[in-house]
């Protein structure tokens, strides 16, 4: 008889340049168990101020000794944030894991926001069960990327910063470029074509997943792209970071196992 999976719920927190979101998550099925709480990112994006907001989000969620996973728009290596986009430069090189652990009084996991979205799509969404190479991208202010090989994440790929035609790819092809430059869908799709063709040339992916809020309009731009790999909309948009962070956070041990 198949054994039912039991795993305690965990909290996922998604830190961005304008907002910080969190919820309690059923990490077996990838569903929110609470309302999604969203608070503005404090002015200046200083580490202590952001940790304070994260603590108040955790406090406002259903009580319990829940594991916590946090995702952040930066390279994250061994708990340290190695870059800073739209937040204070104090994050560069900071031991962010220890900062949140001190403030929340429990162990946490921290990872890149697009990597968290990749884990969510892999565990519960559009990238589940695909063998080979999958690239999950998030199109927003920047372009985030998660590279998955046979279901294993290669973290911190930062493929939004590929240099294409002499410039930073996300400057030309992120959703913010469409908005900033007033591009229509067809004009933006040309930028995306250049971007995703470059990803294909470099990685020969078996599947490309497109996330970010704009993916709800996928019918307006994905059919305009001509690629070798299937390119599909993400299952999760604004909750992908929360779900993936919670999934990774759920593997953090919050209390020691009983002796004996
Ligand atoms: C950052 C990435 C992040 C992506 C999406 C990029 O500008 O460098 O770390 O994943 O934006 O937020």
Verbal overview:
There is one protein chain. The chain has about 260 residues and is α/β, with parallel strands linked by helices. The protein has two domains: about 5-110 and about 240-255, 2-Layer Sandwich (Nucleotidyltransferase, domain 5); about 125-235, ATPase, nucleotide binding domain (Nucleotidyltransferase, domain 5). Helices cover about 30% and strands about 25% of the residues. It contains eight helices and 16 strands. It has helices at about 45-60, 95-105, 115-125, 170-175, 175-180, 185-205, 220, 240-250, and strands at about 10-15, 20-25, 30, 35-40, 65-70, 75, 80, 95, 110, 135-140, 145-150, 150-155, 165, 165-170, 205-210, 230-235. The strands form four sheets. Strands 1, 2, 3, 4, 5 and 9 form a six-stranded mixed beta sheet that branches. A five-stranded mixed beta sheet has the order 12-11-10-15-16. Strands 6-7-8 form a three-stranded antiparallel beta sheet. A hairpin with a 2-residue loop joins strand 6 (about 75) and strand 7. The relative contact order is 0.18. The model has no long low-confidence stretch (mean pLDDT about 95). Beta-D-glucopyranose (BGC) binds near residues 74, 85, 138, 144 and 170. The site of beta-D-glucopyranose has 12 residues, from helix 3. Its EC number is 2.7.1.63. This is Polyphosphate glucokinase. Keywords: Kinase, Transferase. Belongs to the ROK (NagC/XylR) family. It comes from Mycetocola reblochoni REB411.
